[in-house]
Design goal:
The protein is α+β, with helices and mostly antiparallel strands. The protein has 3 helices and 18 strands. Strands 2-5-6-8-17-16-13-12 form an 8-stranded antiparallel beta sheet, with helices on both faces. The N and C termini lie far apart (about 40 Å). The N terminus is likely disordered.
């Protein structure tokens, strides 16, 4: 396990060779075909600043939906928005154990586009010409149900994950850290508002030439290209695990990384209702 680098900003993958269109289609296919059974999950990667242990840098805003508009698809006017975390598990899911998922709020700066069907925010077209694929912020793509792939490098899309993971933040973080083929930074405590969790980064492989896709777990995206980095806030929201993720590349502009981190750290939760 690699030591975490000095604080950097967050970004997700996008680029000259890949556009957000295939990204959105892949993510949507994943949700429709089975986020839990082995469908492609949207990737959110980014280079990020390391959060201060136990500290939160976002403004103290309420997570109550009253007065906060719902996040809508398309270009986003700068401001505060609410979003209901989606159940991305629809194959082999323990329906009797499905919890009420929380609502979250996020502050979005100028220059971002929402694609709610893939639970993601992307830089507006033309803002990032350096990354090999669209950077992104993913809002709870991975949440209460997850399984790891013992071999993330797959020759097919949507392989069935084969490593069970328990329901807690610790279950997930420990399983990822113990995986011999997943490279991560050292986990550390983090807070988003009043809720606690664990932060770590996944460092995607630099060589993907032998893989049709490289997907560490389900539901989740596959890495969007060589050296794709995911920064993950794995949060416990009144007993329900929710993962906020940013994804980006080494060449992602610093300004976009910073905005990704700021959005992730602005997230506040309100408990789900049955």
């Amino acid at each position: 396990m690699e030591q975490e680098a000095d604080p950097v900003e967050l970004v997700v993958a996008r680029g000259a060779a890949l556009s957000r269109a295939p990204y959105v289609l892949a993510v949507l296919a994943s949700l429709l075909l089975g986020g839990c059974g082995g469908g492609p999950t949207p990737t959110a990667t980014r280079e990020s600043t390391t959060p201060t242990a136990g500290a939160s840098t976002s403004p103290p805003t309420s997570a109550a939906p009253t007065g906060v508009p719902e996040l809508q698809d398309g270009a986003v006017t700068p401001g505060r928005y609410r979003f209901v975390v989606l159940n991305t598990c629809d194959v082999d899911c323990p329906a009797d154990k499905r919890p009420a998922l929380p609502t979250l709020e996020v502050t979005v700066p100028a220059g971002w586009t929402a694609a709610t069907e893939v639970v993601s925010l992307f830089p507006a077209e033309g803002r990032d010409t350096a990354s090999p694929n669209d950077p992104a912020l993913a809002l709870g793509w991975t949440n209460w149900w997850v399984r790891l792939n013992s071999q993330p490098c797959s020759q097919v899309s949507h392989q069935k994950p084969d490593i069970p993971v328990g329901p807690t933040v610790g279950d997930f973080v420990d399983a990822v850290a113990a995986h011999p083929l997943i490279d991560t930074t050292e986990p550390r405590p983090v807070k988003l508002g009043r809720y606690r969790g664990t932060f770590f980064s996944l460092l995607g492989p630099k060589d993907l030439s032998d893989c049709y896709e490289w997907r560490p777990w389900e539901p989740a995206p596959y890495v969007q290209g060589p050296a794709n980095r995911w920064d993950l806030w794995v949060m416990d929201v009144d007993g329900v695990r929710v993962v906020i993720m940013t994804q980006y590349f080494p060449d992602t502009p610093a300004a976009i990384k910073a905005e990704l981190r700021a959005m992730a750290e602005s997230v506040r939760f309100a408990p789900g209702r049955s």
